[in-house]
Here is the input.
Amino acid sequence: MLIPTPLRSYTANAAAVSAHGTTLDQLVSDLDRQYPGLRFRIIDEQGAIRPHIRFFVNRLATRDLASALSENDEVMIVGALSGG
Amino acid sequence: MAKIKSARDRRVTLLVSTRKGLWQLQSDPARRTWHVTGPQFLGHTVHHCIVDSRDKRVMLAAARTGHLGPTVFRSSDRGRTWHEAKQPPAFREGSGRVVDHTFWLTPGHASMPSVWFAGTSPQGLFRSDDGGATWRGVEGLNEHPQRKAWCGDDQAGTPDGPKLHSILIDPRDARHMYIGMSSGGVFESTDGGSNWRPLNRGVRADFLPDPDPEYGHDPHCVRLHPALPDRLYQQNHCGIYRLDRPAERWQEIGAAMPKSVGSIGFPMVLHPRDPDTIWVFPMDGSQVWPRVSPGGKPAVYRSVNGGKTWQRHAKGLPKNQAWLTVKRQAMSADAAEPAGVYFGTTSGEVWSSRDEGRSWKCIAAHLPHIYAVETA
Here is the structure.
């Protein structure tokens, strides 16, 4: 997984980490298990991706946490660029 | 009654929460010179940072960033190091509600040293029993069958988001609490938050179809005097009010303000010892609610008789073309003798008075948009 700079305080500044899951939702949960607190910063309490967060799976954008994943998929989390 | 600080102890620390991080300002014992340190949480929107009145080493800060969701940080060494809450304030899963940001933090009653309360946007009340590490909703309010009638939809709020603020604990009774909701009004609980009732009689709501409703008001800031806990003041969207319990009807004290200035503003500041001395920072509430100093001439107004009369204090402040905005948590007083009064502006200035508001000096500038100024 590729981690954007706003989340690297959770990953000890690692830009890329490994996580496991057969869906994007499971992957983020595994990420939270490894780096507690990270999930709530990008997924709200109703299970929705926060408005300015984007996920790319193998460079394709998705907002569906049920998206199926395969081993060695590359998942990128992006803080959408906006505002000033 | 608040203790008067000795000369040696008169160094004051201000916690300045801004749209881009947290700064601290520390004074010399005379409060003449100030040293700015920070930032901490650079790039985070820090809505509120407050010291624990029961243990001055402890601080809590409510933060989020433009992209990341809301959280709470705790320090137990006066802000040197911070640890994030394991479970920040969040609404019940399945409720359909989402905390946009934690807006207001209040230490619990002195008899409950690990208890904290948080108010959120949209309106939600949360409690921590472990010093801010984990938070749970106060369901007596968040799930109250009348909540939606009181507050409206989560999207129907002020441009910065509807808020729960002004969480007040009666120092004589931990179960007796007040809160302010914008919008919603002032509400009271006598059972530790299990149930709530509106307490708004006498407060105008002239933006509603019924100008004298039971709820739906817009209190901007509500304060309870620690030395006289039956005395409440509020700066409201529709004026300034005072309530002396057990009375139920607020008295409008803003009517005594000059008509050319009006009685609209955000903060409400109480003297640390004298329940009759209060400060407000009037802002233009006309037409489209510009919320800047009326006429570009900023002034603090002080009453020393519980709001019967008001005095304008502008010495040291810019005389014109100064369109200052001061938000509801961005003005406070210290506990020294004479009391110091402070305010921070959305244009990033911090102003200080060491003579109870009579004269003012700018002690910091060029900070980001200031949300809160608290003494520590």
Notes: The CA atoms of residues 1 and 17 of chain A lie 5 Å apart. The radius of gyration of chain A is 12 Å.
